[in-house]
Design brief:
The chain has helices at residues 19-31, 60-63, 70-73, 76-80, 85-91, 97-115, and strands at 14-17, 35-40, 47-49, 51-55, 66-68, 122-127, 130-138. The protein is α/β, with parallel strands linked by helices and 140 residues long. It has one domain.
């Protein structure tokens, strides 16, 4: 592998990730300001590891990292099934707010359990050379 290959994401054939990181990143982004992604950092090679990364400013142009959105890694049905707190709060009376928040937390926990089984087998990366599909391997 040449030195240029280590900074070229087209060298990537598979990305290992933890299902818990995927669902935690998705839930974080739904519930908080900022974003959580699955980050792959150079040097790049055939098998890479993605880890959860929370940020407010995208630094990929500086670091050369690749950010995978949790939505791109989760199956569509898992994304669509995420419990919606805002709609539930709008429909609730003011004195029910604490109970609604507790129910939502329990619903998110149950969603996370289900969503861990809803990781795609492949994801498409956007590289300078064009789109590239890579395998996702589950760890942990």
């Amino acid at each position: 592998m040449s030195e240029d290959d280590t900074v070229d994401p087209s060298a990537i054939r598979s990305i290992a990730l933890a299902p818990a990181d995927v669902v935690d990143a998705f839930a974080y982004t739904q519930e908080n300001p900022g974003a959580a992604v699955l980050r792959v950092t150079p040097p790049f090679h055939g098998r890479m590891r993605a880890r959860i990364h929370v940020f407010r400013t995208d630094d990929t142009m500086v670091t050369g990292a690749i950010h995978l959105s949790p939505e791109s890694v989760l199956e569509e049905r898992a994304v669509a099934d995420y419990p919606d707190l805002e709609s539930t709060l709008e429909a609730a009376d003011a004195d029910e707010t604490d109970a609604v928040r507790k129910e939502h937390a329990a619903a998110v926990e149950a969603w996370q359990e289900r969503a861990r089984e809803s990781i795609r087998e492949r994801v498409t990366l956007e590289t300078d050379e064009g789109n590239q599909t890579v395998d996702l391997k589950l760890v942990g």
